[in-house]
Design goal:
The complex is a heterodimer of chains A (190) and B (316). Chain A has 190 residues and is an alpha/beta fold. In chain A, 27% of the residues lie in helices and 24% in strands. In chain A, the strands form two sheets. Chain A has a five-stranded parallel β-sheet with strand order 3-2-4-5-6, with helices on both faces. In chain B, helix 4 links the parallel strand 3 and strand 4. Classes of the chains: A alpha/beta (190), B alpha/beta (316).
């Protein structure tokens, strides 16, 4: 892929501050860490979820369970492209029933991934509430979905591409915005 | 992945590992309250069985239903096949009904290949056992079961024992396991090893005791009496003594060695009852893993578009 003019919008420190703020907001909104379950959407949502859970733990001294929720089989674009590889789903043993589930993803774009995640969650049980935390909200929603906790609102055009790197997957923390490349106008291009 | 699954030999190492990894995810579904995934909603899977089967048919049916596909079961008995309808006309009928996948078991070797290559159907063809040729999903579930207990199969030693000549399970396993890097040894009486076995990627032996002592897994094959119209060995008792897995032989196995059997078992013939029910035996687990593996195969063959399109830029 050609990488024309790419601009850093969040560096490592910015991401760390955003996650710390989000973890405080989650605690504030939930009035403490009771019954929280932080679930990341693969690939990059999973390490972000783990970091949020660790920060909540630091603040409150309570271990908050985290896990991973693969949404591949619930996507609405499965038939539009060759079969996708499944990612790992890892739900803590206590399950999701009665929990306040915080879904975590790196970028919120069309909202279709989150729609799929809500369906996937529905098949796992009945959470008391589901909230959404994202590192970047880039707009262009195609469904009536919004985030409860946002690291950074990033107004973008459809021709731009938002690229999130996290240390656990990519070796470093960074959010880039690339212009000029033909980012797909539909689907879940990042 | 390809469009059809006809032979275990068609799978590259990457394909095989992809199926096994996908099956690993599918397996976790069994622990969930709702054992259903929406991936194949609106797709139709036909189980076309010209030969008797319990495990394979039920397992394919469960797999397709757990992925939300519609399932049509077709058994040759009680259908127009008994009035003399040909495979072609049956296939054209299924095509007209809009089958997206045909899971076929046939008594003639090569029937699934014919079905896939003759363009009678636009759907995927999955070989669920053809004559004495191949049974690729059985090999995949055996490999999956072994991998769960032994880890990576690279360099592992697997001994397949018994009626190799009539066994599609043995052929598919030999091909798949060697693709995955395992060392396969076929053991059986000379009359029950096929002509041309020298060209297979395996070792052969006529002596069970010396082979099993260094095995990581021992797979016992069923003596297929229904395919035997001449005498391949003097008596059942002699076969059982030389090639059956009994308590004495089980004691020779290394501690970690698994015992597999594709079923249905002839207890007391190729495997004694106490071995079949022992803690090393993973025979029941093979059946439950069969559903996960077949889900993986159906998912990978059917969930995507039939026409590969270019991946949009920026797709992670």
């Amino acid at each position: 892929m050609p990488a024309p003019a790419a601009r850093v919008v969040l560096d490592e420190r910015d991401i760390a501050r955003a996650l710390t703020r989000i973890s405080h907001e989650i605690l504030e909104r939930n009035r403490g860490p009771a019954d929280l379950l932080v679930l990341g959407i693969p690939t990059r949502g999973v390490p972000l979820a783990r970091r949020l859970a660790a920060r909540i733990d630091e603040v409150e001294g309570t271990v908050v369970p985290s896990g991973a929720l693969d949404v591949t089989m619930y996507r609405d674009d499965l038939r539009l492209r060759p079969a996708r590889t499944l990612e790992h789903t890892d739900i803590p043993h206590a399950g999701v029933d009665g929990k306040t589930v915080i879904l975590v993803d790196d970028v919120l774009f069309s909202g279709r991934t989150i729609r799929a995640a809500l369906d996937a969650l529905n098949n796992l049980g009945r959470p008391r509430a589901v909230r959404l935390a994202v590192l970047v909200d880039r707009g262009h929603r195609e469904l009536p979905i919004r985030a409860d906790f946002v690291g950074k609102n990033l107004p973008t055009s459809l021709t731009e591409e938002v690229r999130v790197s996290v240390a656990e997957v990519d070796g470093h923390d960074e959010v880039l915005i690339a212009t000029g490349s033909v980012a797909a106008a539909t689907g879940e291009a990042r | 992945m390809r469009r059809h699954l006809l032979s275990a030999g068609d799978l590259s190492r990457e394909d095989a590992v992809l199926v096994l990894d996908t099956a690993e995810e599918m397996r976790s579904l069994a622990d969930r309250p709702i054992k259903k995934l929406p991936a194949l909603r609106g797709r139709t899977v036909v189980n076309l069985f010209f030969e008797d089967s319990t495990r394979t048919r039920i397992s394919f049916e469960a797999a397709a239903k757990r992925l939300s596909a519609d399932v049509i079961n077709f058994a040759a008995k009680g259908s127009s096949v008994s009035k003399g309808e040909s495979l072609k006309d049956t296939a054209l009928t299924l095509q007209a009904m809009g089958a997206d996948a045909i899971v076929v078991r046939h008594h003639s070797s090569g029937a699934p290949h014919r079905l896939a290559s003759a363009q009678w159907t636009h759907g995927s063809v999955i070989n669920a056992g053809d004559g004495t040729h191949e049974h690729p999903t059985q090999a995949l579930l055996d490999a999956f079961t072994m991998r769960r207990h032994l880890g990576d199969l690279d360099g592992r030693r697997v001994t397949i024992v018994g009626d190799v000549l009539h066994s599609r399970v043995a052929r598919s396993n030999a091909l798949l396991l060697s693709t995955l890097g395992a060392e396969v040894t076929l053991v059986g009486p000379p009359t029950l090893l096929p002509v041309g076995v020298a060209s297979w990627p395996v070792h052969t032996s006529y002596d069970l005791d010396s082979s099993i002592v260094k095995s990581d897994a021992v797979m016992m094959l069923r003596v297929q009496r229904e395919r035997m119209n001449e005498s391949f060995f003097p008596s059942a008792r002699e076969y059982s003594r030389r090639y059956g897995l009994d308590t004495r032989r089980m004691a020779l196995l290394p501690d970690h060695t698994l015992v597999l059997h594709p079923g249905p078992m002839n207890r007391g013939m190729e495997i004694s009852a106490d071995v079949a029910d022992s803690t090393r035996s993973v025979i029941v687990e093979q059946v439950s893993n069969g559903v996960a593996v077949r889900m993986a195969v159906l998912y990978l063959l059917l969930s995507g578009s039939n026409v590969p399109i270019e991946t949009p830029v920026g797709e992670s």
